[in-house]
């Protein structure tokens, strides 16, 4: 998708997009974990080394948050009001130094019950690392206004 | 659930828990949005007033992140390694000044394909505000080690 999409009726099912990239550094990983996911393997190198991951890893919620930032700043969609997320899966660990980007595909347009003014655009997204490995996948349900009549 | 749960085999299906509470302030809402969801209605009062929400609102991903913090700091589960989230829904807006807590219920124990050492505990969770309104719901899939034999 090249242009910025504004109205429900404009979203082409099957269209794909890709965002810019963001490299996570250790400070961002640890600061996010301190605020929102203070588990030892997100905070401390030694605890990470002892954990099932074998190293300090980023919170999966940081991967989700960075994916959202990449989507918003890509400007592909004018307004990203989500009603919810389906099938979010964390497939592989994300570590400081990893470079993430998001690849998306419009998979379905759905009516929004109770509203004729907006619809739900379902977008399947994968967050990939610098080795093109999918680290997270999700289907976002985005509430998008229909084109005003006239 | 009173005690801290450590092993898959200990999780009682049907058991419920509730976390402590966290009050969001405007600075936290705006700082999170600047970092991870820089849409105008999350950043600026005037833009919030003009938006579909009618006021500055918190990012739904902040609600998810705060819910994670409340879960981790509640100490109910020893290690919260998630494989994914199902059916995440944002039901109502969250604004600065709102006080959130999480109510959870163990709904299912599942085998983890390819591993006999861990299983998946499925936990249905609701994030509520100070008026007992559900602002977010989700089903978390948590990877929990089985009790070592012997």
Report on the structure:
The structure is a homodimer of 150-residue chains. Chain A has 150 residues and is an alpha+beta fold. Chain A has one domain (13-145): Thiol Ester Dehydrase, Chain A. Chain A contains 4 helices and 5 strands; from the N terminus they run βααααββββ. Chain A has helices spanning 26-36, 40-43, 45-50, 60-74, and strands spanning 16-23, 81-90, 99-112, 115-128, 134-145. Chain A has a 5-stranded antiparallel beta sheet, with helices on one face. The longest helix of chain A is centred in the middle third of the chain and has 15 residues, at 60-74. The radius of gyration of chain A is 17 Å and the shape is elongated. Chain A starts with 15 loop residues before the first strand and ends in a 5-residue tail after the last strand. The mean pLDDT of chain A is 93. β2 of chain A pairs antiparallel with β2 of chain B, so a sheet runs across the interface.
Question: DSSP helix count of chain A?
Answer: 4
Q: Fill in the CATH topology of chain A.
A: Thiol Ester Dehydrase, Chain A
Q: Given this structure, which CATH class of chain A is correct?
A: Alpha Beta
Biggest interface, which chains? A-B, 29 and 29 residues
Radius of gyration of chain A: 17 Å
- Note the beta-strand portion of chain A: 35-45%
